[in-house]
Amino acid sequence: xxxxxxxxxxxxxxLALGTVSxxxxxxxxxxxxxxxxxxxxxSNNGTVNTTGIGIPxxxxxxxxxxxxxxxxxxxxxxxxxxxxxxxAWPFQNDIRLKNVGKVGRVDVLPPTVSVKYHxxxxxxxxxxxxxxxxxxxxxSEKEYNVLTGTKLDVKNSFGLAANVGVDFNINKNxxxxxxxxxxxxxxxxxxxxxxxGKAKVDPWVLGVAVGYRF
Length: 214
Fold this sequence. Notes:
The longest helix has 22 residues, at 2-23. The chain starts with a helix and ends with a strand. By secondary structure, it is mostly beta strands. It has one helix spanning 2-23, and strands spanning 30-40, 47-49, 58-63, 66-76, 81-88, 91-97, 101-109, 112-118, 125-143, 152-154, 157-169, 174-183, 186-191, 194-200, 204-213. The chain contains one helix and 15 strands; from the N terminus they run H-E-E-E-E-E-E-E-E-E-E-E-E-E-E-E.
């Protein structure tokens, strides 16, 4: 009986310590996460008209997906409210034209600042939502197929961003996080300085990361 009572007492103490350990996470001001993010553009990416560059036709565009390492920094204003900066290793997205194929590739860097609300920061499972702004840098364009020998220029863009996800608080410091993010990303496309259309990327970004609070 004494052994059972002792075991019960230890179990209760362990649970209590575990609860306190997670609760103490609310006292941390910074959360850094490192993980993997996949950018999946929406299915309909707009059209381009190449008449101005000597190809009298209109084409549907298709922007390819990309997966890269990601990192986020979040400052907790209160236990529930944080400001997050999203960064990543530059994504590479292929540009295709219907019935033509791959005509370009561009490096994409989409830093995003969001205000996030954590519903249950002291619980083991803590869902969150966020709303913010994104500025996407487009650079290092490469030309293929019918655009070989021309100058492709995909312009930077500014737009809204939103995300939803959940953190699994392993203990007061370590976190495993999953999130889904939508970014408004619409970029003018030029060839030899002539605008031929707008790429409506508007991607979903799926992420998984390991985080550390301090």
